[in-house]
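Researcher: I'd like a candidate sequence for this fold, 130 residues long. If you have to choose between options at a position, lean toward the conservative one.
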């Protein structure tokens, strides 16, 4: 299961739209590794002048890798995180997460990072089965 949904949040969803801060809180508690990693790259970006900040270290275990994959594979979770942190997330190799400034989306650096060529250049034998 991707998220551990408290009964009050489930009831909120059953009544209608969910408050963004309630959804993000659920993501934070359900996927702590993914939350920490995305918080860190978004924080790194906010304290620099760079177009993006990224993580290149693989997760310490399959459990953490699974959290990251669930967070970034879900449109709702990924979108919620992007809105919460004010970034555009990009993803490669089962662990390389980058936070881009919204103004960088569509620019050369973003296009390079998200291109087929960028994906291929970031492959290595040790990451083949990640």
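Model: Candidate sequence:
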């Amino acid at each position: 299961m991707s998220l551990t949904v408290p009964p009050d949040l489930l009831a909120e969803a059953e009544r209608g739209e969910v408050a963004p801060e309630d959804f993000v809180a659920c993501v934070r508690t359900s996927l702590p590794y993914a939350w920490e990693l995305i918080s860190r790259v978004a924080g790194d970006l906010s304290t620099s002048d760079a177009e993006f900040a990224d993580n290149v270290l693989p997760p310490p275990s399959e459990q953490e890798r699974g959290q990251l994959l669930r967070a970034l594979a879900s449109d709702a979770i990924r979108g919620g995180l992007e809105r919460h942190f004010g970034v555009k997330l990009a993803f490669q190799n089962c662990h390389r997460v980058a936070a881009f400034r919204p103004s960088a989306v569509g620019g050369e650096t973003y296009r390079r990072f998200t291109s087929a060529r960028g994906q291929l250049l970031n492959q290595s034998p040790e990451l083949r089965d990640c």
